Amino acid sequence: MRRTRSSRAAAPRRGDRHGRHGRLGRSSVVRPPLPPLDGRLDTFDLHVGSAVELLRSMWPDLRPVRIEIAAMPAHADPDGLPRWLVDREGQRIVLYRVPIERLMEPGHDDSAHRRVAIEGAVFRAAAQYIGREPWEMDPHHPED
Questions:
Q1: In a domain? residue 4
Q2: Residue (of 45, 33, 56) closest to 97 by Cα position
């Protein structure tokens, strides 16, 4: 028995909908799960980002400021190794990751103290940028 052209065109071809192994094709959205953010760089970026987001929501002066992260400063100050650079003219703050993470007090190098050190550096740098003391960064702080 011979098939006619009309019957061949009407029947769906298996290869159009299924892959060569008979399964539906996988969507491009399905990927293997990504590893959790547990590296120092990822954690540092996450802590800086959350602190900056909070500060920008409270202080409109900080919204146009670029917050950058660098590994180390190019030069040491006479006072020691800086943890950040404030550039008001360029509207930017540069946070130096290695000094912030490594120059903590001995015995305070666990994840909780590291987060406090990172967020503290962000708050102090932002306070220096807008000309305030770090404890004044709380919008509910009473004015003197």
A1: no
A2: 45
